[in-house]
């Protein structure tokens, strides 16, 4: 701590003391100014929902107390203009020589961070970024040809074969505050206005009964799970009622617990069990670490394919005829679809900001497959209401469920909510908890009350169509509509590709036409002028690090230009109805504005046959792709989630 540096530690989603590489580096080299900047104008369409903002407020207060005890208060700033302007104010006020921060990987942060870094470097201020969020940086995991992976299994297999530095950094035991902090106009935690009304404050008071934000509480939750919950994780993780998972996801989002520490503790526990002869616990460990891998993969996908927050990874789905139906979307949001398990999940989500990952998969699948609602609408609603809302994880989950990924759900997969209810809530306990109208329905009928005899309905007090809705769409109708939508997609996709061929149609061309379009990213070598440890940012002007395509040989070559942040508008159909103050958690409607600045990346597309076989030169794609669940980072389930309703699928024309 004897250095002469005056370092600003720019906190974002790394609100912890322990294993915080940026904080540790600053503490070693001199005096420190920890700062958190809240700039609502820069959040745009991804302005956090009410529950997420409550968590942020509580976590900042917890972090502030911790830093104060180390000798250095946390400076809070509400920036009306921009984060860059606030950072420049801090730099000039204290004469800072360096700014350090831990990296983020979502497309919005990538653009903002690159802009800030270039501006400060131009002013002669040293900028240094660290990996405080991942086991493996996105640019470290490519196949032997330098291509980005587009299937989770192959990505994670590659990761597991890479050397890694797992040992977490020790927390600093003392911080030296910078002189001149009194020259900076800061904000109190309340003046950040993370809670925008008295009604929000009242609702948020109920959240503290179930959750305890803050890095120290995150470590206690982790230790409790590793010691008591992990051993039965493989058996309990699919139970939708009760506490059957780690409950770490909201702590993960705000960086209150280190992924490296989680990985290390879990692996050490696995070794301990093996030494004690508890080999059966190995499945639980592998499943949990795989869920950590899915979180890693979500960051990897957003970094390499930064357009995935607004359109599908598979290019063919740009022709998918999503149903723009606000009435159906409202019925889904309010838990009034007539399918009890789906409705229970949506009502729990609205009331508490939380629901089990299996329920998230079920309700999202219903939205995109039964109702044909655009997956981007569902993703945005989840972002608005979830306590653990996480851009990268939600993108991965919704793309997976909608069939927008090479290893996602098949486009024609349609799971029966009635069968799912019998599988995951066999006694109906979960449904009765969240749908009081069905509280007296027997378990035999609770997941399909429309089939119950009138005498049962009368005793249970259920009047279908009056106090509980009839199914919003019949199963066979949903099946027909889904097949028609897929058929339409392939017809439009084929027509576009035929038009591009200018009438030169041969058998080889036809085989490529009837195939999935999979983007391919090629990583270019690091610019000699850029620090090797610094973050690689996909930009198009040749500075620092860049992603540029190599030429593909063959008739299936397709180059598409991708904007990191496009200025397109997403139709605002995600507004949330008013909720009684007594509810635990509610959503928050927010603007859909997107920052107008963008950075272009060129990505190549290669083709995969709808039946599962791929064509193209890339070696990392296998001939048959396993489809693995990519829901929230915490709970992966590759098993079928219920009986699929099917009929012979329609082939592309």
From TrEMBL:
Domain of life: Eukaryota
Name this protein carries in UniProt: Uncharacterized protein
Organism encoding this protein: Avena sativa
């Amino acid at each position: 701590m004897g250095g002469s540096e005056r370092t600003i530690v720019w906190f974002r989603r790394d609100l912890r003391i322990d294993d915080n590489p940026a904080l540790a580096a600053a503490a070693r080299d001199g005096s420190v100014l920890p700062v958190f900047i809240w700039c609502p104008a820069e959040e745009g369409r991804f302005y956090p929902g009410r529950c997420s903002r409550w968590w942020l407020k509580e976590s900042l207060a917890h972090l502030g107390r911790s830093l104060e005890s180390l000798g250095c208060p946390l400076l809070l700033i509400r920036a009306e203009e921009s984060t860059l302007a606030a950072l420049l104010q801090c730099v000039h006020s204290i004469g800072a020589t360096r700014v350090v921060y831990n990296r983020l990987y979502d497309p919005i942060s990538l653009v903002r961070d690159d802009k800030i870094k270039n501006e400060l470097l131009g002013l002669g201020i040293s900028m240094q970024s660290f990996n405080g969020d991942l086991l493996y940086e996105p640019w470290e995991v490519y196949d032997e040809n330098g291509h980005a992976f587009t299937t989770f299994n192959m990505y994670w297999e590659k990761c597991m074969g890479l050397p890694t530095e797992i040992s977490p950094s020790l927390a600093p035991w003392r911080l030296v505050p910078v002189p001149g902090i009194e020259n900076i106009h800061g904000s109190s935690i309340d003046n950040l206005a993370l809670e925008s009304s008295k009604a929000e404050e009242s609702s948020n008071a109920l959240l503290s009964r179930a959750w305890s934000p803050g890095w120290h509480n995150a470590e206690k939750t982790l230790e409790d799970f590793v010691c008591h919950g992990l051993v039965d994780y493989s058996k309990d993780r699919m139970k939708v009622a009760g506490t059957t998972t780690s409950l770490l996801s909201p702590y993960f989002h705000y960086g209150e617990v280190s992924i490296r520490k989680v990985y290390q503790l879990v692996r050490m526990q696995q070794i301990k069990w093996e030494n004690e002869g508890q080999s059966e616990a190995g499945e639980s460990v592998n499943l949990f670490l795989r869920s950590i891998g899915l979180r890693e993969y979500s960051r990897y996908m957003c970094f390499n394919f930064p357009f995935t927050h607004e359109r599908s990874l598979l290019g063919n789905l740009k022709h998918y005829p999503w149903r723009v139906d606000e009435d159906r979307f409202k019925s889904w949001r309010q838990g009034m679809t007539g399918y009890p398990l789906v409705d229970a999940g949506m009502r729990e989500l609205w009331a508490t900001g939380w629901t089990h990952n299996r329920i998230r998969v079920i309700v999202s699948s219903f939205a995109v497959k039964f109702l044909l609602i655009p997956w981007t609408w569902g993703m945005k609603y989840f972002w608005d209401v979830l306590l653990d809302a996480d851009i990268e994880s939600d993108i991965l989950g919704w793309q997976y469920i909608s069939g927008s990924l090479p290893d996602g759900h098949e486009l024609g997969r349609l799971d029966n909510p009635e069968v799912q209810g019998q599988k995951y809530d066999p006694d109906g306990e979960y449904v009765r908890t969240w749908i009081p109208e069905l509280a007296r329905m027997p378990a035999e009928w609770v997941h399909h009350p429309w089939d119950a005899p009138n005498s049962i309905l009368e005793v249970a007090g259920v009047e279908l169509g009056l106090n509980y809705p009839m199914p919003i769409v019949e199963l066979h109708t949903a099946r027909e509509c889904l097949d028609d939508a897929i058929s339409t997609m392939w017809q439009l996709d084929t027509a576009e590709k035929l038009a591009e061929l200018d009438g030169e149609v041969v058998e080889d061309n036809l085989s490529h036409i009837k195939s999935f379009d999979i983007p391919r990213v090629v990583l270019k070598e690091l610019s000699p002028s850029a620090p090797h440890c610094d973050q690689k940012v996909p930009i198009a002007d040749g500075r620092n690090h860049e992603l540029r395509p190599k030429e593909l040989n063959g008739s299936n070559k397709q180059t598409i230009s991708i904007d990191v942040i496009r200025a397109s508008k997403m139709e605002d159909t995600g507004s949330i109805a008013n909720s009684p103050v007594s509810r635990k958690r509610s959503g928050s409607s927010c603007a859909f504005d997107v920052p107008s600045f963008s950075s272009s990346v060129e990505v190549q597309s290669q083709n995969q046959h709808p039946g599962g076989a791929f064509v193209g030169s890339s070696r990392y794609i296998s001939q048959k792709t396993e489809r693995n669940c990519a829901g929230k980072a915490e709970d992966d389930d590759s098993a079928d989630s219920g009986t699929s309703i099917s009929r012979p699928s329609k082939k592309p024309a």
